[in-house]
Amino acid sequence: MPEPSQDRSPGLLRKLGLFDASMVMVGIVIGSGIFLTSGIMAKSIPSPGLILVAWIVGGILTLAGALTYAELGAAMPEAGGQYVYLREAYGPLAGFLFGWLLFLVYQTGGIAGLALAFAEYFGYFFPSLSTSSILFSSNITVFGHTWIYSLSAGQLVGVGVILVLSIFNFIGVGLGKLIQNIFTVLKIGTIVAIIVLGFTLGKGKSFSLSFQPGGMDLGQIIMGFGVALVAVIWAFDGWNNVNFVAGEIKKPQRNLPLALFFGTLGVSVLYVLVNIVYLYALPIAEMQGVVRIAEKATSALFGGSTAALISAAVIISTFGALNGSILTGPRVFYAMAKDKLFFRRVARVHPRFHTPGFAILIQALWSALLTLVGTFEQIFTFAMFVSIIFWIAATAAVFKLRKKYPEMPRPYKTWGYPFVPALFILASTGILLNTLVEKPIEAFSGLLFIALGIPVYFYWRSKSRKESDL
User: Fold this and answer.
1) Does an H or E element contain 146, and which?
2) Helix, strand or coil for residue 138?
3) Cα dihedral 74, 75, 78, 83 sign
């Protein structure tokens, strides 16, 4: 492995304890998905039992991945996380392609999506600032194709939130973690309140744990379950981002594995209990296709409209997830730049704040641009397919690195090895195959998208060699 740098330039500081790392992990995972996903799942698998099984399976798979990443993070507690694991296992090209996807679409597109979700629910309280408040609209023609572009007040709100949180995280990881801790505790408290009040004061009905959706044969159930599981994986997405900040976690050999384990377990329990509340509140027929499932379920439980309550909950949740994403992503770009695979300035750490300031800046600007464009959703779908491939590759890196670096200190070794990482790989492969069948255009477009990064990689390699020669 490459030797650590011996220069005296300012570096990142280890300021994140176990609680902080856990809040980063939980805060990123719990965004808007748990408030929106279950109604869509009910359309694919109209069965209470299968819906709960899908959430349990999603939690188990995420835990399997987290336990595997825990070994990698404890052995290589550096900024960059998955980028570092892919680089060490398969070479710099694999690491670069992950970072390419992360910067161009996945991390920045996720930030833009969270910002727009925040603005959407923020607009409930301030309609003039909502995404439906159009400020400008025009037809744009390119190569004979016409698109309608519109700019809403909500998009500007989203950009403003991205920039403000980026400034806070630029000032220091201490301020970033304070915001993360406060909003993650608030969102956990809100979800727990929905669960407790739903069962104690809610006017719900018992439901049957049927595993046989009416009118569906076995093949349809399997395909529908696969589609629902993709939605569950999306709701769990972001669990590995805490590894990006491994270079700033205190005692990472201990705290990173614990944060991944307790964070994943806690989120899984919350998700399953919330879905039991939804099923307690609504018959499965009334859940099918409902996007704002949390709002409809709580309205049924408590009577009257709970739109204000759920809107406030989503605002808190997306704000915390947004801050966590802004905090973690730049560490990957920083690690790429240190390997001379990105702009040189991105590798600089601010001498006063000890944060990768320029990396935070360019992430903020690109995320803001995606927010203004507002048409990144389909590209983000492409990226999700490829990101699962990178998850599989990083998990398989546990096997690769044990052979490649047998003497590497491993303070934590994956529990249940080799079965736990194998389970994650097999299940993720199944999800990939299901996506190929159900959404072949998106899947192949994602592969093409990542292939575009190959010439970019060789450009950076060539540039780096020329600078070395000079």
Assistant:
1) strand 145-152
2) strand
3) negative
In sequence order, the 6+-apart residues with CB closer than 8 A to the CB of 337 are 343, 344, 345, 346, 347, 359
Nearest to 166 by CA among 16, 330, 371: 330
1 close to 405: Cβ distance less than 8 angstroms: yes
Q: How far apart are CA 59 and CA 447, in angstroms?
A: 27
Is 112 within 8 Å of 326 (Cβ atoms)? no
Q: Which residue do the tokens 């000079």 mark? A: 470
Q: Are 137 and 146 in contact (CB under 8 A)?
A: no
Is 5 domain-assigned?
no
- Sorted by sequence, the CB contacts under 8 Å of residue 381 that are 6+ apart come out as 439, 442, 446
Residue 184 near residue 27, CB atoms below 8 Å: yes
Tracing tokens 């439980």 back to the chain, one arrives at 301
Q: Which two tokens stand for residue 377?
A: 């959703």
For residue 321, is it within any domain? yes
Q: Are 78 and 84 in contact (CB under 8 A)?
A: yes
Q: What whole-number distance in Å separates Cα of residue 395 and Cα of residue 397?
A: 5
The CA-atom distances, in angstroms, between 441 and each of 192, 448, 466 are 40, 10, 39
CA–CA separation, 159 vs 166, rounded Å? 11
Q: Does a structural domain hold residue 124?
A: yes
- Domain of 362 in residue numbering reads as 18-465
Asked if residue 59 belongs to a domain, the reply is yes
Which candidate, 365, 360, 368, places its Cα nearest to that of 168? 360
Cα–Cα dist 91/86, whole Å: 7
Output the CA–CA distances (angstroms, integers) from residue 178 to 17, 19, 20, 23, 399, in the order listed. Answer: 12, 11, 8, 10, 37
pLDDT (tens digit per residue) in 459-469: 988 888 877 76
Amino acid at 241: N
- Taking the mean position of all CA atoms in its chain, how far away is CA 241? 7
User: What is the count of structural domains for the chain?
Assistant: 1
For 120-172, how does the pLDDT look when each residue is reduced to its tens digit (9 = 90+)?
899 999 999 988 898 988 888 776 777 788 899 999 999 999 999 999 999 99
Instruction: Compute the chain's Rg from CA coordinates.
Output: 22
Residue 292, Cβ neighbours under 10 Å: how many? 16
Q: Quick one: how far is CA 217 from the chain centroid?
A: 33
Residue 140 has which token pair? 């744009």
% of the chain residues with pLDDT over 90: 69
pTM of the shown model: 0.91
* CATH number of the CATH domain containing 444: 1.20.1740.10
Q: Please report, for residues 71, 100, 233, 246, 394, the alpha-carbon distance to residue 81 in angstroms, rounded to integers and kept in the order given.
A: 11, 14, 20, 7, 10
Supply the DSSP symbol for 406. Answer: T
